[in-house]
Design brief:
The chain has about 450 residues and is an alpha/beta fold. Helix content is about 30%, strand content about 15%. A hairpin with a 2-residue loop joins β9 and β10. The structure holds 4-nitrophenyl 6-deoxy-alpha-L-galactopyranoside.
């Protein structure tokens, strides 16, 4: 079988069509909507784009209100239980890795079940690795033969998930790396042809955007030196010319994942395997695994419920989203113990969801004792540990607490003073073993308070 047959003709047609389309779009915005767009500019991450189209603040705000999503790393590598992409040519010899797709047959894959697992966990969006660094495509792309139709499974995993998400009300998103360690056009040790590679990427992106209408594209692989800032800028505008509302993470440009710089392209930050720093200006989403490996690993160490919930609460407390990862098994099912852990998170969220979704982080910076979120006149104080019979917080300089009560309504006694801060008396046993919530009712809008250093 010939791998990576590139449809240059289609590509050329697509790019001239897109060129015409982008000229029209640019004209349209120049004539009609410059004032609207300049009011809606979102983040510094797209400062590189000058006057180009960028995701509106309204769309990004809607994304940040979701707070919790499911990341899924899946592909033929699940047959070996090693890490996706990274184990190619290491734990699994390259030729063996590149032929795994011939045996890839996850017959128990059920998109509705994956999406239900995410929904029951309280997750509001889902991101599937449509294409990881190993280059295998989980959808029947016309632009590479190294795709799911040439596996015994044949079914369109990306398409089935997009339909299931739509049905169950989750936002469907696509992970798509800019690194492809399989495509001969991708420059690595051997000289490739990055222009041809970028053309393939554009064809594939246009295909997934038009077929599956993703809410967000989660790029990756931007640290590779053959990927240039110019590529990122070009692709951002290309994506926006197809659908101006698709959200794009910051791994399309260059530079650090956790902060914006002059090299960034993308709408939001992506700290990895750690909770991001509190940030009220730049949008961010931490991606963190439920076990240790991104792809499925037999007997991988799973996080406790307490770790899972506190990770989510600290993320919301820092004003970010949590993209929580599972790696389904080679037969297509998510491990039962992981489904159970996610269900427990969902049960916690059924009770405490109003303290997480649609809230803002702060005003206190999250730490190992507590984290706070806020909405309207309320601060939700999440307490992780009870080390003493009282909890002392720095003073709320510009506001007064009128009332304090546990989430179940039980009144909490407290004292406040500009010099000593806020003193909260804790009962002998906190009501919730993983994270107990005390509601602080203020005399003014908590969302307007400045961040308090603790
Ligand atoms: C990246 C991927 O490589 C990883 O497989 C996973 O998809 C994650 C969400 O994103 O993580 C990285 C990024 C950079 C390095 C390692 C893992 N690195 O530079 O060594």
């Amino acid at each position: 079988m010939k791998m990576h047959r590139l449809s240059l003709k289609d590509g050329q047609n697509a790019s001239s069509y897109c060129f015409k389309k982008s000229v029209l779009i640019v004209l349209f915005y120049l004539v009609f909507s410059m004032p609207v767009y300049s009011q809606q500019l979102s983040d510094v991450g797209v400062q590189q784009l000058g006057s180009g189209v960028r995701t509106s603040k309204t769309v990004i705000d809607g994304f940040m209100d979701k707070r919790f999503g499911m990341f899924i790393h899946f592909g033929p590598v699940s047959l070996r239980g090693t890490e996706i992409g990274w184990s190619r040519g290491k734990e699994v010899p390259t030729v063996e890795y590149d032929n795994l797709y011939k045996e890839f047959n996850p017959v128990l894959f059920n998109a509705d079940e994956w999406v239900k697992t995410a929904k029951d966990a309280g997750m509001k969006y889902l991101v599937i690795t449509a294409k990881h660094h190993d280059g295998f495509c989980l959808w029947p792309t016309a632009f590479s033969d190294y795709n799911i139709t040439n596996s015994p499974f044949k079914r369109d995993i990306v398409g089935e998930l997009s339909i299931a998400c739509k049905k169950q009300g989750l936002a469907f998103c696509i992970y798509f790396t800019v690194a492809d360690w399989h495509d001969p056009n991708y420059t690595q040790d051997q000289p490739g042809n990055m222009d041809r590679f970028v053309l393939t990427m554009k064809n594939e992106l246009k295909e997934v955007i038009t077929h599956y209408k993703p809410y967000m594209l989660w790029f990756d692989g931007n640290w590779e030196k053959q990927w240039k800032l110019e590529h990122g800028k070009e692709l951002y505008q290309f994506i926006k010319s197809i659908d101006k509302d698709v959200i794009v993470n910051n791994r399309l440009g260059k530079g650090d994942h956790s902060s914006f710089s002059s090299e960034s392209v993308g709408d939001y930050l992506t700290p990895e395997q750690k909770v991001g720093e509190l940030n009220m200006v730049d949008s961010w989403e931490s991606c963190i695994t439920i076990c240790n490996q991104w792809a499925w690993k037999p007997n991988d160490k799973m996080k406790t419920l307490k770790e899972c919930i506190q990770t989510l609460v600290k993320t919301a407390g820092g004003n970010g989203n949590l993209l929580f990862n599972v790696g389904p098994m080679m037969d297509g099912r998510i491990e039962a113990r992981q489904i159970e852990r996610l269900r427990e998170m969902g049960a916690w969220l059924t009770k405490y969801g109003t303290t997480i979704y649609g809230t803002k982080g702060g005003p206190y910076k999250p730490n190992n004792m507590y984290a706070t979120t806020r909405k309207g006149n309320l601060i939700y104080l999440h307490i992780f540990e009870r080390n003493s019979d009282k909890l002392i917080l720095p003073a709320l300089m510009d506001a007064k607490i009128k009332k304090a009560y546990f989430f179940n309504g039980e009144v909490v006694s407290f004292a406040q003073n500009k010099d000593f801060g806020v003193l909260i008396n804790l009962p002998k046993v906190l009501p919730d073993a993983v994270s107990s919530v005390i509601v602080l009712e203020l005399d003014k809008n908590a969302e307007k308070l400045n961040i308090i250093n603790n």
